[in-house]
Amino acid sequence: MNLSIRVTLTMLAVCLLGGCGFKDIDKRFFVVALGIDHSENEKKPYRLTLQLAVPSPKIEPGASKTQIETIDSESIAEGVRMLKAYVDKELDFGHCKVFLIGEQLARTDYQDVLQWMSRRRDIQSVADIAIGKPDAESLLQVKPISERYPGNTLFLSFGADGTESSYTYVESLSDFSRRSSEKGLDPLMPIITKDSKESFIINRTALLNKKRVKLVLSSSESQLYNQLAKDFTKSSMHGMFEGMDLVVAITSIHSNFRLSKQNDEDIVTMNVKMKVIFEEAPKGLYNDQWGPVEQQLNKEYSKSCVALLKKIQKANVDPIGFGLRYRATHPGNSAWKEWKSIYPNVKFKVNANIRIEGTGLIK
Amino acid sequence: MNRYVFYNFILVSFMNLMLYVPHILIDYRFTGAVSSILIGIVIGSILVYLYTSAMARFPGKGLPEILKLYYPQWVVTASMLFFAIMWWFATTIVVVAFAVLINRFFNPDANTLIILTMLVIACGYAATRSTLSVMFVMEIGLIINAPIILFVLFKAVRSTQLNWDAIHIAANYVTVMPTLTCIAAASFIFTGYINLSLFNRLFPPNFRFKFRFFYPLFGAMILLITFFVPIGFHGTEGVGQYIYIWSFTADSLLMQYGFIERVLFLFLIVYLNLTLVYTMAGWHQAMEFVKSCFPSNKPEIDSPKTPVSNYIIVGIFALLSILYLLMTNEKINMLVTSYWLVLRLFVELFIVVWVVILSKKGAKTA
């Protein structure tokens, strides 16, 4: 091909480049967190709160600056469009890592919100989703003093980079969206509250059905749930032995479950295997027999597990996925219907198998 | 030389994600997809074996030359024109789908038409090169991109988000009778062998097809991942709602310490490369088929000077692709693709049987 054709083609390609709607980074507002609440206004039921990152040349604790924009609107999409008229730069959801749903909204119906998130292409499905209590707006107003980047605090609380709390259940948008439609696996979300103007507390978990919140677990139940369902180590367990308080740290945990039928009763058997190290124990335990202590711990652990499972069962939600397992092991279209009648009466059995590895550094 | 056969096979098996194969299979997940996958694997493997065995009898000859040995020119012209349309269409739906995908995920403000124009200029130029160059480009493209795709697939399979109970539920529907659409979609994974129709020209007389057990194994692995991993990620119910199912699955993955956290963008860029390579290969073959319609044409695998006819034919392909984009939308493209997949299955069966019969005939007369 001769030179002139090559040059013409190149020029043509370059001319086409101008067509993209490219905007410079300093002409964009990055949304770092989005809160969606129920407003009191009946005509405009959604209250959107956007936390916008304000770029700052300083990177040091407390240097993070954010701008909060709030709007009431008829629908979420229209609200976001409308908010564009409130700011001077293009809104960009590409870095939005945390979505907060106000408690009231989560208690009525979350499906519309979820659908909007799944439909938008720029909302990442790896983003975290949580319930804000009492509402999302007031939580986004919180200004943590140690925050280095805008919106970083909430994001660090959920990821594995920063703190890893055994009380925090981490839910991603894609997992939530799967659970919200799956037969036999129900959604759950962490609940975020604030203690003052400067920090968040994330130690409770809400269990939802396909529409709204059904049950809120207390913080110790949330930790137990994380151990059972997510094999979360770095957590602790409290027990009693002959009237003395024991606290152990879990170094490894494996749990599985199976469904069986015995004497016409459906039974869910959970096996939990864990290795533990003492964090708080009466002195001299090192020289005692560990066998009875292990057994006592086993007994207490299974008791609290069964209590939790029964509580979840009573709320008629199934976050661990017993129903899904039933459908998997019982082929046929009627399995789901059967399970729905079985689940309210199913019996739980938890076999804990705790092995003490040591008593820490002292006897 | 066997690696050139592998490249064709691997490239096409990866491209299934762009041809809505997972989407079609997942639509039928409770109504026959699993059994169709099994049958698709069998049909695909048999076709690979038959076609490679038959082609081995015609060393250095492509499909046009083989037909010319036995039939008058008008038969060759008619069939080659038809095959050229099939090959052109196979790639056009992919490149058009990708233009729409770029518009959806990368830059919604950009005009799809402009994106497609850029893509077809790149593919078109590459397609006008000689057969040998096209093969080399394909080799480079695959060597660069295939490891990344395998990485993403591996990451997806090993992810803790993958729910094996959901996969188990879908697999339980293996007893449902297969459907034609699903078999056509499933067997597409194996269809790379049909590119030998042209690339067989490259192989020397003493060439032998080796390691043929690799094709069924690799194809089955890709097919199972294609179908089951999205179900494991999005659940048996939720998986049905997504249009770009694999883009969404890639988006559910996180590379915490990668340069880009979202696997989605890595995935899309790699697939952009593969789409360009695939389109180039498809158009090049279609172009050669059109050229073989003229009696005076002599096949050349590495001509020093590009004939003008190359530019004219590929230019027509490019314009037709743009026309196709203007006439269709996402939904029609998806529908057309599912019909095309069925048609493709029968055309391929026809080609394979035809060449096998010719190869037996050749053995008798020779």
Report what the structure shows.
The complex is a heterodimer of chains A (363) and B (366). With 363 residues, chain A is of the alpha/beta class. Chain A has 2 domains: 24-217; 229-363, GMP Synthetase, Chain A, domain 3, CATH 3.30.300. Chain A has helices at residues 3-17, 76-84, 103-108, 111-119, 136-140, 152-158, 173-179, 219-230, 290-314, 322-329, 335-342; strands at residues 28-38, 46-54, 65-73, 90-92, 98-102, 128-132, 188-194, 200-208, 213-217, 235-241, 244-262, 265-280, 347-358. In chain A, the strands form 2 sheets. In chain A, strands 1, 2, 3, 4, 5, 6, 7, 8 and 9 form a 9-stranded mixed sheet that branches. Chain A has a 4-stranded mixed sheet with strand order 10-11-12-13, sandwiched between helices. In chain A, strand 7 and strand 8 form a beta hairpin. The longest helix of chain A is centred in the last third of the chain and has 25 residues, at 290-314. Chain B is mainly alpha-helical and 366 residues long. Chain B has one domain: Amino acid/polyamine transporter I, CATH 1.20.1740. Chain B has helices spanning 2-15, 21-27, 33-56, 63-70, 73-105, 112-127, 131-158, 164-172, 180-187, 196-199, 214-234, 245-251, 263-291, 308-327, 330-365. The model of chain B has no long low-confidence stretch (mean pLDDT 89). Classes of the chains: A alpha/beta (363), B mainly alpha (366). The interface between A and B is large, with 35 and 38 residues.
